[in-house]
Each structure stands twice: as C-alpha cells, then as structure tokens.
Amino acid sequence: MATLLDLANLIFPDINLTIADLEKKYPNRNLANKAMVTRFAPSPTGFLHTGSLFTSLISYRLAKQSGGIFYIRLEDTDTKREIEGSGADLVKQLNYFGIIPDEGYINDELEKGEYGPYKQSNRAFIYKVVIKHLIEIGRAYPCFCTAAELDELRTKQIQNKITPGYYGIYAKYRNLSPDEAISLIKEGKPYIIRFKSMGDEANKVKVHDEIRGDLELQENYQDIVILKGDGLPTYHFAHLVDDHFMHTTHVTRGEEWLASLPIHIELFNTLGFALPKYAHLPVIMKEENGNRRKLSKRKDNEAAVSYFISEGYPKYALIEYLLTLANSNYEAWREQNLDKSYNDFILAFNKMSLDGALFDIEKIANIAKERLAYKKANEVEMELKEWAKTYDNNFYQKIISDEEFITNILNIDREKAKPRKDYAKYSDIYPLIKFFYNDEYENLSKIGFEWNPEKPKNEIKKILTYYKDNYNLANDESLWFNDLKEICPKFNYAENTKDYKKNKELYKGHVGDIAEYLRVAMTTKKNSPNLYSILNILGKEEVLNRLEKAINSLN
C-alpha cells in the first residue's frame, strides 16, 4: 500500500530539500526590534498603475522610517498575461519617484540581496519543497478535474443555490488514496495541486488589520489551487512562501485583497509559519456621474504613472499628493514644515483612511504649482531640462543652447513674497514662455497680435512709436513704470486707473492700457509674466525689433 510520502516523491522526484533546509538557507534578518521588512510585488503585465505607486510608496516609507528593509519581488507566475520588459520598466519608474529598493529584482538579468531569487518564476524549487511537505502531511493533493468538469460542477451548484467552488463533498479528488492518485498519475492524466482546507463555511476567523483593526471574516473552506499545470504556483500560495522566507514583517496591499486574507491565514497556520502583519489600503477611486469607481487602466490616463512622467508633473508633487491620501495629517504637517523633505514625515497606520480615496488631479496640479513657485530657478531649470531631454527635444535644444537665458525666464517674480504660480507641470512651461525665443515670436506674430479691439489701431501705433523713439529701460522697475506714466498726458491717458474710472469721459485710456500695448508688442498676447522682466531679458536690440514689427502690424 502506497503512502503520502510515496505520492509526494512521485510528483516531486527531484526535490530532496526540506523546509528545515530552506530555513537555514534564508535565516532571520538581523534587524532592530521595530524595523519593518516590506515589499512591493508587482506582476509584469503592463504599466505601473498609480494605485501601485501609492502602495509601494507606503511600503517604502514604512521600511525607511523604521530602519528596515524594502525589497521588490516580481510575481511573474501568470505567464499568459506577461508583457516582456514591463517588470524592469516598473522598477525604473519607481526609481524615478525615489522609491529605490534595498534589495530585490532590478531587471531580468540583475537582482541584489541574499533572499532571492526575487523573480517568482526562478523560485519554483522553493515552492515545490513546501508543496511536497504539504502532500506528505495530507494537506495538499493532486486534482485531476478537467475544465469541463469544473464548469459542470459550478453550473449545478448555482442551479441548486449552493455556494460555488471546489470544497468538501464537491471536491471530487480530495479524498483519493495515495494508491488511486499514483495510478492516475502513472496513466498520464493531467493534474494540478490543491490545498486541502480544514475550514467550514459556517465559521468565522478573527483577523487583525493594521489599518482596520480587529475583524471577523468568513473562514476559508475552499480547496484552492496552489500549483498550476505549468508547474508555477498561484498568487495565494507563492506569496505566503516568499513572505515567509524573505521574512516580510508587514504586507501593505489594496483592500480588494482583504477577502483573501482567511486563505492566507490558513496556509500560514498549516505550515506553522509566523503570520506577517497586514495593512489593507483604500483603493484609489474616480468620481464619474456622481458615482465612485476604481481608477481604471482602460478609462483614465492618470491611472498610468507614465502619464504623469510624460506630461512633466514634478515627481514630488505626485508623491506628496499620494501622502495626503495615505495620512490625513500630512497636509497640516506640510504647512508647518515647508522647508523639510516629505521623507521627514512619519507615516502612521492609525491615520490611514478606511474609505476609498478619491483621486483629484487638480489637487496634484495645485501642489505642483506651489512647490515649483518656491523652488530656485536653477533647480527648476535642471528638472525641466531632464524632462525635456526625453519628451520635448525642440525645447531641450533651446534650453542647452543658453541655460542662463532659460534660468532668467524662470526666475521672473520668483523672489517675491508671493511668486506667480503659473506652472503645474514642465509641459506647461514652453507654451507660456515660447514668445521669448525669436523664431517662436515670428510664428506668433504671423498668427496675429491680441490688440484691444476697443482701441483704435492708429492710436496704439502712435503710442508704441513714441515709446520706441524714446526707449530707455530704467534700472529700477518703479522708475520704469514712472516713465511709462509720463507718456500718459501726451496721449490724454490717465496716469492711474482710479482717475480713469472716476472720469472716463476725460481720458482715452489709462497707464494699464499703455502697458498692455507694450506687452502685446513683446509677446503677441495680453497675458504674460512681469513686463519689466520681459524687457530686461529680451534686451534693448530685441525690444526695438519687436516694437518695429508690432508697429508695422498696425498698418
């Protein structure tokens, strides 16, 4: 009569290691008592989702602030959905946002750390050691059900209003004897390996979540698949093996995995492995037609982290926004610590939301405007150049041709107590400042100048001609503006807007109108950064050239 050991040896003839051997190979980490070991475990099935950046950011910060370890593990067991190269791309994008692992998967040729391999497809021997043990103790078994049989079972269960699944009396191959199972294997009948659950549908299991507190969830009773026909494990099984032997202390993941927690608890308990602490994070939501839904890869550009990178949102703006979703007190902390890095903020589980976080791209834009406005111009120029090199070659060439020029442009109004907040992202900058470049000014002037339609063109022409003939840029902005005021009486314009508003019938316009004519002449637009700064940056020769062109357009 065959034994469970005979069955295990038949299924895994080349596996000679034991769980004890694995424990020696992957010993406990020598870390301080409160140090956390956290991980980000993506699947290489596409782009880095904004929700995944959120989750990985929290895992990373928890490890860093506790003096622990953050690692990356690539969960590539779903070979049908895998997209070649996407794993390495995910790591690169995390690095872009400053989330750099202490160990783990880097790309298909490179990893670092003593607890690897960090790519699940390369860890098959580890999973097989553990599954072999489960078969030996009667907690796993080969299942020979075909897809057609499973479909038929599910249909009958639904028709009879029975909870669908493979469990208990509905688990056809659950109670085969070792002899029966060995006979079917030797016949060449295809099979997978299932975990034999001892749970009951009527029971509850008590669990603790670091964010949600103590919970009661339905006990697992399903005989889940743990090893597929291709020899690779399922997520449920692989994650428990990996988290145990990599000594993960805290698992942070989306709340959609909360329902699976009883499965994982039973697996950990069956193997006698210490359960890591779990924190199920709120899912990032999008409001649509008054309802909330998950941020969607299919519907929402902002679901992909690559969108924020290509559009040129400052990386710290997105990170800080995600921190506001992570902890309710982040914004108050930031207001009181404007000179500190967001890395100085201490994340806390008890400050995390229980509800789905509503994604707000306008809030990201506001954070970006705030941070960009108070950064030094040369720092913004460096960030801008880095972005433009990849995403706007035309602008990049202009930047590197005269970096002092672009820095001066970016420095307009930056030294004021309340600087202008024009830019939410790097891609906003060139459209707003391109008039500084002569070739772009030529193109814009051909499109047309935004002259005030309520003012006669011959009047605007006379004023600009006078300004051109008497051009002399004062060394001080207030003196320059006084010079501008002195032009007003010559053309019956009020020297201030208050006088004009009180006595409109006495004046043709006011000093603000003259400034607008000059602004349009320099930029072709009514709105622009500080006019005095524009004149300084362009220089006298170019100012006179542009005045001439603008005057000619008024013929």
In words, what does this structure look like?
The protein is built from 24 helices and 16 strands. By secondary structure, it is of the alpha/beta class. The strands form six sheets. Strands 1-2-3-4 form a four-stranded mixed β-sheet. Strands 5-6-9 form a three-stranded antiparallel β-sheet. Helix 1 runs antiparallel to helix 5 (124-136) and helix 14 (377-391) packs across helix 16 (403-410).
Count all strands and give the number: 16
In what range is the share of β-strand residues?
5-15%
Rounded to an integer in angstroms, the radius of gyration calculated over CA atoms is 33 Å
Tell me the helix content. 40-55%
- Strand order within the widest beta sheet: 1-2-3-4
The average pLDDT score comes to: 94
Helix- and strand-based class? alpha/beta
Largest sheet, if any?
Answer: 4 strands, mixed
Number of helices: 24
Low-confidence stretches are none
Distance between the termini: 107 Å
Tags for this model:
alpha/beta, 3-stranded antiparallel sheet, 12% strand, elongated
